[in-house]
Each structure stands twice: as structure tokens, then as C-alpha cells.
Design goal:
The structure is a homodimer. With about 120 residues, the first copy, chain A, is an alpha+beta fold. The first copy, chain A, is built from five helices and five strands, in the order αααββββαβα. In chain A, strands 4-3-5 form a three-stranded mixed sheet. A two-stranded antiparallel ribbon of chain A has the order 1-2. In chain A, helix 1 crosses helix 2, helix 1 packs across helix 3 and helix 2 packs across helix 3. The interface of A and B includes residues 104, 108 and 111 of A. Strand 5 (about 105-120) of chain A pairs antiparallel with strand 5 (about 105-120) of chain B, so a sheet runs across the interface. The structure holds a DNA duplex (30 and 30 nucleotides).
Chain lengths: ~120, ~120
DNA sequence: TGATTTAATAGTAATAGTTACTAATAGCGA
DNA sequence: TCGCTATTAGTAACTATTACTATTAAATCA
């Protein structure tokens, strides 16, 4: 594992993003800082950073993966109209996890919660 | 909207499956019953059946979409070791949804909950 | 019943997102 | 500074899915 300027750039870009960007979006933002960075490098480093636990991968139904600077347990909401992806603080998720663990006997290492619907801004229109 | 033998076959195959199959797997199973069915037809009918609310689409982090005959609100668990996808009855999901709706003002139309970990069979090994 | 209409089909091409490959580059320890 | 090797840029390949097109067949109607 080596410290490269490319890896730092990918991490900085994700940490500066509040919109749960896709790999392609992260690539575009990286190129603004480091124009020679390649898409493959972005994908590889995203994977490395997820493995290191520095960022988190978020799966959105019917779309490519997104990335999140917040690694702690929380839920996501995707608006069907505007496509925005927002964090949803849900402090009862840990209780939910624990309940499933004790009921099923499974070992749970990660939980993905995605609500799909219409956000308040779009509802107001 | 026409009633075709192909659509019936796709629906029957999903309803007969307990393993949350992928589109490709559904295609293979359909061909055992109807050898001339094409992959595009399977994809198109899966989409139609999801829109009709007869089956459900399940997103698994880091893999293609899966399909589920059970449309009611429930969670899923994916084992990192054997790759199996199982239903997790979670009756507190509705409470979770309602809580988020009232806290955020969002309209929630669907909720996806995925636990990732190690299933009891794999833990025993 | 048979003709007509048009949604759905099979088969194939195209696309999007992601991963693999390869020669060149650049961190980092000796 | 040298040498080793992980990482890189650039490109090719791959996987999952969608789009396209000529053909077929389900439902409607004469």
C-alpha cells in the first residue's frame, strides 16, 4: 500500500462531496484538480478506500453505485423526481440490526437502508 | 398490455423461485420451460411485472438486480461467503418508514433494507 | 370465422458501468 | 542513489441491461 497523489485526490473529492456522487462524477471532480488522472485509477482507489473504511459505498436501486464520506450507520433516501440522494439519520438502525442478529443467528457486518419516494422540495412543486 | 405465454412463464418462474434469482437465472429457468424465449423478453417482462406490482426488484450491493416473488415490506440478507440472499421478516420496518416520513416530510413509496454478513450455515463451517 | 390492428416477440446491436491488461512511472526502503 | 514493485494512464474487455427491427400473434371487429 503506497501513498499516491491520486489516492489522496480521490479521498479529498469524496470528503468534499455532500451529494453521494457516482464514480463518474468523482472522476470529473478529480480531473478538475488533477487533469491527468484516469477513470480506472478512480475506480481502483474508490475500492481501496472502501476496503480501508475511509468512505462508504451506497447502492441505489436501478442505478450505479454511489459513494459517501459518512461511514457511520445511517440510511439514505432517493427522490424519484429529482434523483437526489440524501442522508437520513436513523438511530434505531442499530436496534434493528441487533434484533435481526439475535433472531436469525446471522453475523451482520453492514446494513443498507434505502427509502425511495418524493422529497419535500419536489412535493412542494 | 397483452397476455402472452412469455409473460406468464416469467411470472411463474419468479413465483416458483425462493432464491431471489437474477435476470440471467430467470432466463435460464424460463428456457427450460420455453426454449425459444429471448433474454430481452425476460428483461422487459420483469420490468412490466415489477410495475404491475406482481413481483419485486431487490438491489444487492455490488451485484446485478435480483427479483423476489414476495412484494410485501420485508428486509433481505446477503451472505458474503456463500452469496445466498434470504428474506428477513422485519415487522418494525413500517414503524421505521413512518418515523422517517414524519421527521423529514418526505413521501416514502418503498423501502429497501439489506443486511450483509455471514449466514448461520457459513458461520458453522 | 377471417381480416385487421398493433402490442409483444426473437434475435441482434448498442450502451453504461465497471474491471482487466500492459507498458511506463514513481514511492519508498536499503 | 539504486532497485524493487505498487501504482499509474490509457485502452481493451467484460457484464448487465436496454434499444432496435423485422416478424409474429393476441385481441378486436366486420
Amino acid at each position: 500500500m503506497r501513498n499516491t497523489a491520486q489516492r489522496d485526490t480521490v479521498l479529498k473529492v469524496v470528503e468534499a462531496s455532500c451529494d453521494h456522487p457516482s464514480a463518474e462524477t468523482i472522476y470529473t471532480r478529480c480531473r478538475e484538480i488533477m487533469p491527468e488522472i484516469s477513470l480506472g485509477t478512480v475506480y481502483r482507489n474508490l475500492k481501496v478506500l472502501v476496503e480501508l473504511g475511509k468512505i462508504r459505498e451506497v447502492s441505489i436501486l436501478n442505478a450505479g453505485d454511489r459513494y459517501d464520506k459518512t461511514v457511520g450507520l445511517h440510511a439514505h433516501f432517493r427522490c424519484k423526481r429529482c434523483g437526489c440522494v440524501l442522508d437520513v439519520p436513523a438511530n434505531d438502525l442499530e436496534t434493528l440490526e441487533k434484533g435481526v442478529e439475535s433472531k436469525t443467528g446471522f453475523q451482520i457486518d453492514g446494513t443498507e437502508v434505502l427509502f425511495v419516494g418524493v422529497c419535500d422540495k419536489c412535493r412542494a412543486i
